[in-house]
Amino acid sequence: MPDTPPSLTREDVAHLADLARIDLSDAELDHLAPQLSVILESVASIQGVAGDDVPPTSHPIPMTNVFREDVVVPGLTAEQALSGAPAVEEQRFSVPRILGDEQ
Amino acid sequence: MSTETLVDFDEALTRYEPALGLEVHVELNTATKMFCGCPATFGGEPNTQVCPTCLGLPGAMPAVNAKAVEAAIRIGLALNCDIAEWCRFARKNYFYPDMPKNFQTSQYDEPIAFDGYMDVDVDGETFRVDIERAHMEEDTGKSTHVGGATGRIHGADHSLVDYNRAGIPLIEIVTRPITGAGEKAPAVARAYVQQLRDLILALGVSEARMDQGNLRADVNLSLAPAGSGALGTRSETKNVNSFRSIERAVRFEVSRHAGVLDGGGKVVQETRHFHEDTGITTSGREKSDAEDYRYFPEPDLVPVAPSRAWVEELRATLPENPTTKRARLQGEWGFTDLEMRDTVGAGAFGLVEETIAAGAAPQAARKWWVAELARRAKDAGVELAEVGVTPAQVAAVQALVDAGTINDKLARQVFDGLVAGEGTPEEIVAARGLAIVSDDGALGAAVDKAIEANPDVAQKIRDGKHAAAGALIGAVMKEMRGQADAGRVRELVLERLA
Predict the structure, then answer these.
(1) Does domain A1-53 have CATH number 1.10.750?
(2) ipTM of the complex
(3) Do residue B332 and residue B389 come from a single domain?
(4) Mutation test of the interface with chain A: which of B160, B287, B308, choosing the one with the most A Cβ atoms within 10 A?
């Protein structure tokens, strides 16, 4: 098991923020990068406790194969589906321009 | 647009070895979506086949469609894959309006099926295409771009999204790099997708129509110096939506890559779009980090662990292996190797099979699809199956030929009528007045006219030169717009000039 926690650089945080579409200022990046590194260190200490006999667990419930029959169940009407949309056009969700100005 | 240098395809292959990779998405024909009970049917009014789950509303929980898992396993088995004993779904995170959850539920490093192969026939040669994986995921919504000049995303002012398609089950089938195909790379790519489609149809798990997007192919291509055995940097051409386009996209990318490499440049690993009208590809994504999807196991779905008993039960439902089936039917139909190759190459195998099942003789079925209808499809730039004539209609036309109602030449006019949607073959023959005339009254008058107009020919026949009758038969056919019973006309000519 790795004992040295990976530390996050300012660039890592900037990259992740960009992927998550979060606009962070320089001050926020300076503030968050060390904080996130501390969180990773804390998680890493838990990793140190787990022995080789404890497999990584993504699902706490020991269940598999929970399936649904292929049967149609009523969903929402278009009116209901669109009721929370900020903008609607031709019974569709209207969204802002997808590509930026760079192209 | 571009100042790319293209190298002639054949010339490129003297210096470079292409490696292909194909990613095919198959949209399943289940009644409901992958993770919710909304109908998975095509063409409903916008946003009428949606629910909190497929709209990604807070708190909505997904539930896996058993039928879709079954289809995924059957596809995996048909591709000679191992079936995972235990696998998970994963979240593929990206932001795009057609993904309302801001992630696509997919599978990452634990696909349900892996390590398979498909043997692909190209011009009598067999290429083994290794299958890396087949995994389960969901389709996205459909965007319409508004305000741009051509309905394209570039220059669009805003976009409209319909989520009916979001969440429809998809199986993505990924090959390992296919090397060693050389100049046949375009044909191998096409044949692989064609054969895969045949297999999917035989399994009955999808409508598998490329024109409707049930079957979508991404074509990866790279070039390496000939003999190096290396793999070059690849481009990924997305959503190439016909068999012909697959072949063209591969050819174009070979030419383009060779141009870049010859000029001492480096191929950029990027997404590209194929343009049906011009046959070229253009660069797609503008952001290099867009491929950073931060996959992680889907916490809302428990793992899928198909029991070996279930897998064996599903294996027993597999249709006959397409290669075995082709060999069997070739024997039954009495086709030569060349005839069989042409039939498969024209994408006509399944259509010929259906036409024969509808009652036509094998050679007649082959002749119409591989010659007449393939030519029409090529002229119209569509796939053979979309030419506007069904196997049942071809069988009906051939039945009219067999009955002597029409001949092959008139049958072509019936196909014109079928393509134009003028009704059944019988209705078209009646409406267009295409039936062959074998009535002696009408034929006799035309024969007399032909004799009168060609006294020299008539004299030759009287002198015993029966071979000359062809000229008179031709004249009668012309007079009767091709609708005379040629055998009867010959008899009448010889009777009159005995």
Answers:
(1) no
(2) 0.87
(3) yes
(4) B160
